[in-house]
Amino acid sequence: MFQQSRRAITVGLCIFSVNLFAQENPPAALDIDAAMAHESRPSVDRQYDNHFYAEQVLSFAGVQPGVRMAFIGSAGVYYTSIASLLAGPEGKVYVHNASWSVQEYPSVLNNWYGRMVNSPMHNISPIITDMDEIDFPELLDLVFIDRFYHDVVRNVPNDVDAMNRAILESLKPGGHYVVLDHAAKQGTGTSEAWPIHRIEESVVVEQIEAADFRLVDTSQAARNPDDDLTGLARRDNMTNTDRFLLKFERPES
């Protein structure tokens, strides 16, 4: 029953976003300074600007004018509004979340709706699926999983490989899969995903490379050497964690 309802929600929101904005002419894509300062960004996002390193993170990911991309696990949606402004009217930003996550946290729909309505680019569309059934209406340049990989591991561990392979099939050859997540201590593997929302970086690399991706770059943009890697990576402490940032590529052939 929920399978049908979640698809109806997804389709309904997409149709609504298209119809609502069909007659408007969006502006050209913005640069990062203009995007960060833009009035359409929610005030709740701005409190994190000194902690989430949007310029470095989104530049590393390859968010640029015309990019066709998706955020996975986008309930937090901090980067969504900025990416929408950077992608511009020729770009597309799909915001995806897991059906089980939306059931548990239905407020995500309000988060999405506000950003869809307020973005002058009108290029944001929601997608809700199970994690092993990720699919988009087109092949993408970029898929970015934002502090959610560990949540898949902790909630539906059997879906992790299927999720990575579905993301591979969602990308154009040469497209990128970017992972941002809270680091756990070396040797802990996935054991900290449930209690403190962290995961060992090397395990993520191993799992994604097993799905035929190739690790092509890493970034220090969100690292915090003062984090002892033992704290709960949620709410108040979420901005102070040591976060790894990885870029994988779908091979050309």
Which properties best describe this structure?
253 residues; alpha/beta; Rossmann fold; 7-stranded mixed β-sheet; 38% helix; disordered N terminus
Topology:
Layout: H1 2-21, H2 32-37, H3 43-46, H4 54-61, E1 68-72, H5 78-87, E2 92-98, H6 99-104, H7 108-118, E3 124-129, E4 140-146, H8 149-155, H9 160-170, E5 171-182, H10 193-196, H11 201-209, E6 214-219, E7 243-249
Parallel strand pairs: 1-2, 1-4, 2-3, 4-5
Antiparallel strand pairs: 5-7, 6-7
Characterization of the model:
With about 250 residues, the protein is α/β, with parallel strands linked by helices. The protein has helices at about 1-20, 30-35, 45, 55-60, 80-85, 100-105, 110-120, 150-155, 160-170, 195, 200-210, and strands at about 70, 90-100, 125-130, 140-145, 170-180, 215-220, 245-250. It has a single domain (about 1-250), classed as Rossmann fold (3-Layer(aba) Sandwich), CATH 3.40.50. The protein is built from 11 helices and 7 strands. Strands 3-2-1-4-5-7-6 form a 7-stranded mixed β-sheet. The protein starts with a helix and ends with a strand. The model is unreliable at about 1-25 (pLDDT under 50).
Helix/strand-derived class?
A: alpha/beta
What is the number of E strands? 7
Q: What CATH first level would be assigned?
A: Alpha Beta
> Beta fraction of the residues?
15-25%
Work out the radius of gyration. Answer: 17 Å
Number of domains: 1
Which strand order do you get reading across the main beta sheet? 3-2-1-4-5-7-6
| CATH architecture assignment name | 3-Layer(aba) Sandwich
**Low-confidence runs:** 1-23
Helix content: 25-40%
Distance between the termini: 39 Å
Mean pLDDT: 88
